[in-house]
């Protein structure tokens, strides 16, 4: 198979199960010669089987060095185990501009640690259900600090938050040095008590915002679509 064909055949790679990933590793045991370098879109739906060793020198992850669009999800992890490791994907590709995260249970700091490892990141989608809110607070600040990398993502594209991610992610975004500059906001399945945070998020990127799509819990909050012209 010649390189031109490989470039198109392997532009988009998806690992839905552990078996898919294992088959890839057996077929292409040497990451330096695998067609991973042609991939621009990578979807990993079995992140629970990805280990730290996979991301080390010689590991299969390192072969995906030109990925622009990354999706990481896992529906196998138990709701009682919110400590899903995402560190193997940190800095996977310096070219990543779009990140999609979808888990059954995940601590918010892990999402931001991953997002901040991609300095060119523009679009962020989070549809995870985070751990339940605690009595003494919402648990958001667990394992969280205010240390930001020298080059934080510009966040100039789109932001999509739904389910448990709205409140916690919105709060964290509000603290980003230099502010946020999203052009599109899509916020769904949130509670009415989160409207203050959401309002702050909208105001934070008002000068760049082009479209706004908001939908609360079914039957509780209306849906708005706003097009701003300057």
Describe this structure in words.
There is one protein chain. By secondary structure, the protein is of the alpha/beta class. The protein has two domains: 1-67, no CATH class; 72-94 and 105-227. The chain is 19% helix and 20% strand. It has helices at 3-9, 18-27, 108-115, 165-173, 195-204, and strands at residues 12-15, 41-44, 69-74, 98-103, 123-126, 158-162, 184-190, 211-216, 223-227. Helix 4 (165-173) packs across helix 5 (195-204). The N and C termini lie far apart (51 Å). The relative contact order is 0.09.
Outline:
The protein has 230 residues and is of the alpha/beta class. It is 19% helix and 20% strand.
Q: What's the SSE blueprint?
A:
Layout: H1 3-9, E1 12-15, H2 18-27, E2 41-44, E3 69-74, E4 98-103, H3 108-115, E5 123-126, E6 158-162, H4 165-173, E7 184-190, H5 195-204, E8 211-216, E9 223-227
Parallel strand pairs: 1-2, 2-3, 3-4, 4-5, 5-6, 6-7, 7-8
Antiparallel strand pairs: 8-9
């Amino acid at each position: 198979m010649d390189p031109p064909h490989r470039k198109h055949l392997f532009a988009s790679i998806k690992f839905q199960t552990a078996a898919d990933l294992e088959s890839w590793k057996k077929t292409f045991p040497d990451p330096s010669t695998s067609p991973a370098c042609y991939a621009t879109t990578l979807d990993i739906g079995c992140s629970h089987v990805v280990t730290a060793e996979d991301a080390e020198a010689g590991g299969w992850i390192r072969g995906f060095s030109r990925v622009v669009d990354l999706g990481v999800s896992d529906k196998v992890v138990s709701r009682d185990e919110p400590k899903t490791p995402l560190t193997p994907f940190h800095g996977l590709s310096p070219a990543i501009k779009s990140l999609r995260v979808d888990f059954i249970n995940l601590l918010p700091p892990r999402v931001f640690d991953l997002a901040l490892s991609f300095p060119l990141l523009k679009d962020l989608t989070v549809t995870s259900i985070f751990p339940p809110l605690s009595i003494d607070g919402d648990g958001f600040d667990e394992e969280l600090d205010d240390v930001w990398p020298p080059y934080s993502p510009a966040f100039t594209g789109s932001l999509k938050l739904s389910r448990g991610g709205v409140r916690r992610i919105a709060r964290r975004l509000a603290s980003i040095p230099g502010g946020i500059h999203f052009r599109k906001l899509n916020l769904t399945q949130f509670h009415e008590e989160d409207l203050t945070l959401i309002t702050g998020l909208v105001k934070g990127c008002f000068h760049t915002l082009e479209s706004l799509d908001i939908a609360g819990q079914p039957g509780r909050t209306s849906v708005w679509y706003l097009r701003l012209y300057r």
